[in-house]
Design a protein that fits this description.
Length: about 325
């Protein structure tokens, strides 16, 4: 039996090296990270607290990771390896270099591309109840004003299939792409609920998988990285103001802008997930969850029974009661 140990986005400008590389390609290449120095990737899943994983790892001075997500092996592959290498910060004194791009898990081409470019990389996936994940993803786009209030339009499998909300939670199908291409010891699969109940033990598993020494006390972010209850501009108003976003971006740190934002910001009232819609999602994910449960040798039936929570969590637990699982 082969053993696998297992236990939201800002707008950034990515580095574009083409201009410097054209003027002096040798000098540009000299300052880029060598592909062999990229040790690990956090591949997903989206809305599963992978930002918490990233920030917890980045608290260690031996770890270097770029921010924001690069999405090279999913959305930016046409840019080439030199562009990818240039996204990484200077790694002097850093023993481990990695990146997080949640799109790698559910992009059909990503696993093969990663195998070709980074065959040595250690991979980390953190998975969440797929119904909760779909709802959380919908809520994120709702508060951005990118989707409407008709939640069934986006999450009802009878009305849509293959969109980001539904396909993102078909974990077994996505993991198959990696298991078929990488040695099983290079893949670490974690569960979101273990992070909630024992964050110290969760980050310890990641550190062990990456070859980092155990830290005492455990290094992990103790506050929520993204808070669904944070007051924000209403989705309708946000859609109206979207064309002006580039104009006001330089003013975000201005005290008057912050005061104006606070005046209009409110806690968002999200459309609820009805019992009927949840039942349809249970049917949609049941077969994949059953296969994943067998793969990880862990009972995940609660994913199909529990009502999705309010997508909030408290990272203050210190218990270490999570077992490791195996892939048969």
């Amino acid at each position: 039996m082969c053993i696998v140990r297992f236990g939201v986005p800002r707008q950034h400008k990515l580095i574009v090296p083409e201009r410097n590389a054209k003027n002096n390609p040798d000098a540009a290449a000299k300052h880029m990270t060598d592909l062999r120095d990229i040790n690990f990737l956090i591949i997903g899943a989206a809305k599963s607290a992978t930002t918490w994983l990233q920030q917890s790892l980045m608290g260690d001075p031996e770890v270097s990771m770029p921010d924001p997500e690069i999405h090279y092996f999913s959305r930016e592959y046409r840019r080439g390896d030199d562009w990818y290498r240039a996204q990484f910060p200077t790694i002097q004194g850093r023993r481990l270099v990695g990146e997080k791009s949640n799109s790698y898990l559910d992009c059909p081409e990503a696993a093969a591309r990663i195998r070709k470019v980074l065959p040595h990389a250690r991979l980390v996936a953190q998975l969440r109840n797929p119904i909760e994940r779909a709802y959380s993803d919908y809520c994120m786009l709702y508060r951005r004003g990118e989707v409407g209030i008709d939640i069934d339009r986006y999450l009802d499998p009878r009305k849509t299939d293959g969109n980001r909300f539904l396909s993102g939670g078909l974990y077994y199908s996505h993991l198959e792409q990696y298991i078929s291409r990488f040695p099983v010891e290079q893949l670490l699969v974690l569960l979101y609920e273990d992070m909630k109940s024992a964050p110290g033990a969760q980050i310890a598993r990641v550190r062990s998988h990456l070859g980092l020494a155990a830290s005492t006390p455990p290094l992990f972010v103790k506050v929520k990285v993204k808070d669904k209850a944070t007051p924000m501009i209403a989705p309708g108003l946000k859609r109206y103001l979207r064309p002006f976003k580039p104009l006001v971006a330089p003013l975000r740190q201005n005290q008057y802008f912050k005061a104006l934002h606070a005046h209009f910001a409110r806690e968002i009232a999200y459309p609820s997930l009805s019992a009927d819609l949840q039942a349809r999602l249970v049917d949609y994910y049941a077969a994949d969850v059953e296969r994943l449960s067998a793969l990880l040798d862990r009972d995940l039936s609660n994913w199909l029974l529990d009502t999705p929570s309010a997508v909030s969590f408290n990272l203050t637990a210190n218990s270490d009661n999570c077992a490791e699982g195996s892939v048969r």
